[in-house]
Amino acid sequence: MVLNPSEMTNTDDESRWIHSDTDLISGHGVNYNVNYIGSVEVLCSMKTLDFDDRTRVARDSIRLVCAAVGVALRERRKPESSSPVQSMIATQANLTHSLTPVQLIISTEALVLKRENDSQILCSHRMEGISFASAGEHDTKDYIAYVAKDNMNKRACHVLSCVENESLDVITTIGQAFELRYNEYMQTQQQQQTHEQQGTLKSSDRDRQIQQKSEDNQDHFISSNNNNPLQQQSQDKWNTMNSSDVYKEDWFHGKISREDAEHLLNRSGDFLVRESAKIPGQFILSGRSRDQFKHLLLVDPEGVIRTKDYEFDSIQHLITYHKSGNIPIVSADSELLLKTPVRYVK
Q1: Is 276 helix (H, G, I), strand (E, B) or coil?
Q2: What is the pLDDT of residues 121-169, one digit of tens each?
Q3: How far apart are CA 74 and CA 22, in angstroms?
Q4: Cα angle 333-339-341, degrees, rounded to a multiple of 5
Q5: Is 35 helix (H, G, I), strand (E, B) or coil?
Q6: Please, which residues have CB within 8 angstroms of residue 269's CB and are 6 or more apart in sequence?
Q7: Which one, out of 116, 203, 286, 304, has a CA that is 20 to 30 A from the CA of 270?
Q8: What residue spans carry the Basic and acidic residues bias annotation (predicted)?
Q9: 314-322, Cβ contacts within 8 angstroms, sequence gap of 24 or more
Q10: Alpha-carbon radius of gyration of the chain
Q11: Cβ(30)–Cβ(23) under 8 Å?
């Protein structure tokens, strides 16, 4: 899942959350009182869209559903009247259960919508089936929307209205739940890999096999008998993400802090890559643009190595593409040009 606003902005793993982790993983979840407004069918995979178009899909869905139930909104200028985004959602809203007061229950397992008057569950969307979430804008700032697949594998954008000024809290909580689920997955896979290596390989054979894999660039991080849907859909991408090759690069500095990275970036264009100390499998590109420091997450929640505009086969591919081509990395509020790698000194 991709969360707005937190993809390629100037953030890293030191985010502050509203709730304790145990609230979201205890099985009970965190509850918000919201109104279910309706949904809009999404006609394409969110993976095919860049971040701006995903945000536009969510916010256009909010406006479409609100208009369908008679919520008066300020007319928005539409210079993008021919924008392809319009063809990415249905033209008619689904108003089943529209304007129903519900409890939104957020946990690492799912987002559940439970009707307030009789506790009937209207929707239950597992976390691995949710691909994007966003708050509204301007006159829809108290609304949120999230894109999810149902049991029939159909994709829809669900629109909720929140208590005044609470929409950002709801979006942040969804982001926290997804990050925790992602961490659980990565830890499970690391444990599984360690267990399989210890249980099936003798020491000398293991060393020889690891060396051969490194030479062939064929590290297999996910086991082939994987039955978890989240693991299945991201298997190839997370194999690439966890390649040990990145540890050999001279611009890779390991698990150093944000502050330590900034001390090493002396000139505009300096950059390095570091590993998150808190999120297994996450890597951060730290760079300097004039007098500003940028810290960009390189691995999205679906395990894809990417910038705002492009996806890459590996972190090395990302660095080479932008540095050799002198192509700036565009984030939400700025551009970062990779000129000089800060080399790790052992």
Answers
A1: coil
A2: 898 898 888 989 999 888 899 999 999 987 677 899 999 999 998 998 9
A3: 41
A4: 110
A5: strand
A6: 287, 288, 289, 337, 338, 339, 340
A7: 304
A8: 203-219
A9: 314/240, 314/243, 314/245, 314/246, 315/246, 315/249, 315/273, 315/283, 316/245, 316/246, 316/249, 318/285, 319/249, 319/251, 319/273, 319/285
A10: 22
A11: yes
Q: Which CATH class is domain 247-341?
A: alpha beta
Distance CA 21, CA 338 (A): 36
From 141, 204, 203, 116, select the one nearest 5 (Cα to Cα). 141
The structure's pTM equals 0.55
Give Cα 222 to chain centroid, integer Å: 20
The CATH label, of 2.30.29.30, 2.60.120.10, 2.40.50.1070, 3.40.640.10, for the domain at 2-178 is 2.30.29.30
- Distance (Å, whole) CA 224 – CA 235: 9
93: which residues sit within 8 A by CB, 6+ positions away? 38, 39, 40, 64, 65, 68, 69
Torsion from C-alpha of 121, 99, 102, 38, nearest 10 degrees: 60
Domain ranges for the chain, please list them.
Answer: 2-178, 247-341
Residue 234, CA distances (Å) to 148, 188, 230, 288, 305 in order: 17, 14, 6, 31, 11
Residue matched to tokens 């536009």: 56
pLDDT digits (tens, 9 = 90+) for 161-187: 999 989 989 998 998 888 888 888 777
Within a 10 A sphere around the Cβ of 330, how many other Cβ atoms? 16
